[in-house]
Write a structure and sequence with these properties.
- The protein is an all-alpha fold and 520 residues long.
- The protein has two domains: 1-227, MetI-like fold; 243-270 and 309-520, MetI-like fold (Orthogonal Bundle), CATH 1.10.3720.10.
- It contains 18 helices and two strands.
- The protein has a two-stranded antiparallel ribbon.
- The chain starts with a helix and ends with a helix.
Amino acid sequence: MAAGIIGILAGLVVDTAYSWARMFIALGFSVVIGIAIGIWAALSRGAERVILPVVDILQTLPILAFFPFVIFVVVATLPGAIGINAAVVFLIVTSMLWNIIFGAYEAVKLLPSEFTELSSIYKMGTIQKLRKIFIPATLPGVVEQSVLSWSIGLFYLVTSEIFSTGNANYQVTHGIGVALTQYAVSGNTLAYALGILVFIAFVVLTRLLFFRPLERYFEEKKIKKQPQHKRQAHRPWWLPSFRSSMLERRFISYAKNEGRVLTGFIRKRGDERPSIAGKVKEAWRKEALVLIGFICIVAVLLWATGLMGYEIQALQALVYSFLRVWFAFIVAAVIAVPVCVYLIFRAKRTSGYVLLFQILASIPATIILPEIVVLFRNVPNGAEITAFLVFLLSGIWYLIFSILSSSKSIPENIFEVKKVFDIKGREAWRKIYLMAILPGLITGGITAIAAEWNASIVAEYFSASSFGVNIGIGKLLDVSVSNGNLLLMGVALLNLTIMIIILNTFVWKRLYNKASDVYK
């Protein structure tokens, strides 16, 4: 018995080591490419206008839908084990890359103008500027974003290896995803549990021995006074940044009026404000007209090419997925908000909690997905329960980390006001807690929703066992690609892209602006 367990553990360690090798290779490519694209976008206005919107949409699209096609193309070019491993690494890169691009971009954008002035005085060339200014400036932010990217990459590492088991010709020889899937399907509970323990051990060791030393190294080199709006998760290109001074003024006013909030919700309407509001409405009106025109053109093209049947099918699937994603997001917010409020305003030490959350966040939902499938396969609505759990676990950590990260910019005045006036209960929630965490809640909501859409391809259809919901955009994408129906896949992706643009422009952007107005 003992010898059998040792043999299983040895095999699992080997499988996980292969998976980690793919992860580090993918992280290396992601860092190099991310720094290059991020610096380019930050220094070139033309590149910025193209790169940022495209990257923000690409990070939301379910990249896993392309995986069978990627395998086909890569394996055709590089047959055998090299091809399938290259395909897996490529998929992981597409999951890690976007966060790192935004991290590098924001780091360069936050550089003081004195740096560029000095480079001009000393007549530095492009290579010198990159080596001495821009690349060193990006490294702290890239390391910070790499921690999150690593967690995202683990989700797609396990998923890509699970997906690859669907075809014997396209299967990695060693990988923790393959091993866990095989143990779950065969019903070997002991081996499956040992596999999860080995995976968690690798996650903890990577966090403590690799990322934590890197973070400490760059923390020591950082200037003490950090920009107040710096966050762990990136701010989408189309959103303005919150200014903590607005938040501070709001609570200074609160203190001066002995707890009565006279500013924020009740504002004097000056001559300038209606004109600004009019300009914003006019801009939204133009964006809406452009978007409506684009949708009409797409509808005409679909009708003319005889693809309207695909369009109806894609819209139905999108509606069902939309409801699942937002239900899971609401549940995640209900859990995340009280937890974060406790850590920010009540807990004496938060570092231990944060480290625990970072470790838990690095354990992807896909690692327990095979067991969830087995558990709920014969349960009524089991596929819906499975989809909900994957959506929930995919998005909740973005909310928690975004709120905790943005809390660093909360002025001390807020904590003093709460203490001096002994504000408690419902009043504290309404006037302090929710107002303070709102910036992080909105930015975390954006990334959480994006992560859930990206996870839809896994949540709604588990191809290794043909288990999934009846209808959903994730299932439609997976099945259409597996069946070679690239036209249906294209129509589904087009609908998903249009929906993402609509939500970003007319929901998240407006929420961000309204939240900013509250603090003025």
